[in-house]
């Protein structure tokens, strides 16, 4: 009897974790440290002066699943056009693919038209789409929990440092006569290496790893890579996430 009650309580707790409601949280507690982009801005002031006029990345990481998925929201103001866009993403950090993605354009702008929402605040936009968002969070077993922004090098559960670098970079003028790059993202641990990503024909002219987010359920991180990209009348800073298991896949050399 006691065993049955215990199992029932575990199931109930598990259900509640996966059924958390975006309308019941304080979204401000989930915002990442602004240093994830300002590190790049400060670096370029010394190494490669760029006209970076906006580093407007308001990113809210909602939490992880136990099988390596990460849910996050990007709230991005758009200079020139005006208004803001909201991007809701659930990314599989094992395969580095999006399992859910939705963009809501001009949510706080009075320009109504195709693919736009009625003007609303960021919080109202989340609330008005919470039924769909909550359904996807439950589907992918995301556990809502504020995360801590960590800065490099990363450290595994045994205290071993892992660093990251941009390698084999190639800069050139590409489409629309704008700067483009090819590059690789490499993880380094105990003089061994792992390729996290091979990026080709990327519209940008500066890129660097800046921070990471650690999963509370396994020795896995989401590496944050920032890049400066030319848009409108100057450059903005954007970020992408790359998954990395801190204990496997490291080899003597990258071919």
Describe what you observe in this structure.
Helix content is 18%, strand content 43%. The chain has helices at 2-18, 35-47, 122-128, 130-139, and strands at 52-54, 58-64, 69-77, 84-92, 97-104, 143-144, 150-151, 154-155, 161-173, 179-189, 192-202, 206-214, 220-231, 234-245. The strands form three sheets. It has a five-stranded mixed beta sheet with strand order 1-14-13-12-7, with helices on one face. Strands 5-4-3-2-6 form a five-stranded antiparallel beta sheet, with helices on one face. The protein starts with a helix and ends in a 10-residue tail after the last strand.
How do the strands and helices of this protein lay out in sequence?
Layout: H1 2-18, H2 35-47, E1 52-54, E2 58-64, E3 69-77, E4 84-92, E5 97-104, H3 122-128, H4 130-139, E6 143-144, E7 150-151, E8 154-155, E9 161-173, E10 179-189, E11 192-202, E12 206-214, E13 220-231, E14 234-245
Parallel strand pairs: 1-14
Antiparallel strand pairs: 2-3, 2-6, 3-4, 4-5, 7-12, 8-9, 9-10, 10-11, 12-13, 13-14
